[in-house]
Amino acid sequence: MLAKTQRTEMNDTKNKEDNKVETKTSKQSKKEVDVRYLPGVGPATAEKLSTVGYDNLLSIAVASPGELVDAAGVTEVAARKMINAARDTLEMGFESADEIMLRRDKVKRISTGNTSFDEMLGGGIETGSITEIFSEFGGGKTQMGHIFAVNMLKLKEEKDPIAVYIDTENTFRPERIKQLAIGAGMDPNVVLKSIKVARAYNSDHQMLLSEKVEELIKKQGLNVKLVVVDSLTAHFRAEFIGRGTLAVRQQKLNKHMHVLLKLADQYGIAVYVTNQVMAKPDVFFGDPTAAIGGHIVAHASTFRIYLRKGKKGSRVAKLVDSPNLPEGEASFFVEESGLKEV
């Protein structure tokens, strides 16, 4: 009788463990549901969605109904059902701050190569964020883009990291990359091969190139860790002239910034953008320099740095905005081998 009772208890325990395993497996399989099994999505619709980048549940869960309507030609009602089903499957909702802290511990930083500049930035520019540097011409914005593209290879525990450089003003120079690589004690050929460069000829082309970064990651399997856009606002400033076009320009710029922010957040990429400036005529005291793009660019950028010319050919970087770092300044010289302490 006692043996029978023990066997019954052992069976009950085994059944409970099996149920736990099944529940865990079902949750995992639930999260790995193919896009084709969402309500209203057949093979044809799935193919249309995949063509424009909506090939996983997360991309659909964070999309707007209008985006899916344009991408797949479905009705707005069907698009909402797809989005809600994707969100339910992924169990999207609130999470505790300690879970976010664990993710923050995995954030990596690309060094500037200068001690004081790195200290001001907490170690360098962050992956998963947009860092904006604005200055007048000759301030050193493009130099910083080249430096980050080289120092990106120094990221630890990253296999074959790649930098994507979107050049809007024909300022990318492989010769400069070679100089910086030699100065950093790296093989110039390896560094040059790790940078993918594209020349953007107008604002639409610029936006298209930023969207194609996702294709490099998904279709070509590249480990993109840095995206440089130099300059962010040059084409928008040239194409949209006068107050009558300001609203359209800001809408396009806002969409462009959100694509970059999504890339940074979803794939753990450090996004570095340079921005032009203008002189505000109504400022009588202090520095009249202001960044182009207004509040759209200001709010979308995680870190904002103002770069200005200092004494004896030096540069001064001022951290204007950051979610977690205090304002500060760092001075340095830009030399052939990189940044040198003042």
Name of the CATH architecture of the largest domain: 3-Layer(aba) Sandwich
CATH topology annotation of the largest domain: Rossmann fold
What order do the helices and strands follow?
Answer: HHHHHHEHEEHEHHEHEHHEEEHEEEE
Q: Could you report the average pLDDT, rounded to the nearest whole number?
A: 88
**CATH-level-4 superfamily name of the largest domain:** P-loop containing nucleotide triphosphate hydrolases
Largest sheet: 9 strands, mixed
Count of helices?
14
**Rg:** 25 Å
User: How many DSSP-defined strands?
Assistant: 13
- Specify the helix fraction band: 40-55%
| Helix vs. strand class | alpha/beta
Domain tally: 2
The low-confidence parts are 16-32
How far apart, in Å, are the first and last alpha carbons? Answer: 87 Å
Shape: globular
Strand arrangement in the largest pleated sheet: 5-4-6-7-3-10-11-12-13
Please summarize what this structure is.
The protein is of the alpha/beta class and 342 residues long. The chain is 46% helix and 20% strand.
Structural account:
This protein is α/β, with parallel strands linked by helices. The protein has two domains: 2-90, 5' to 3' exonuclease, C-terminal subdomain (DNA polymerase, domain 1, Orthogonal Bundle), CATH 1.10.150; 102-341, P-loop containing nucleotide triphosphate hydrolases (Rossmann fold), CATH 3.40.50.300. It has helices at 2-31, 43-51, 57-61, 65-72, 76-90, 97-104, 115-120, 141-151, 174-183, 188-193, 203-218, 234-239, 246-267, 294-300, and strands spanning 109-110, 125-126, 130-134, 161-167, 195-199, 223-230, 270-275, 277-279, 289-291, 303-309, 315-321, 328-335, 338-341. The strands form three sheets. It has a nine-stranded mixed β-sheet with strand order 5-4-6-7-3-10-11-12-13, with helices on both faces. Strand 11 and strand 12 (328-335) form a beta hairpin. The radius of gyration is 25 Å and the shape is globular.
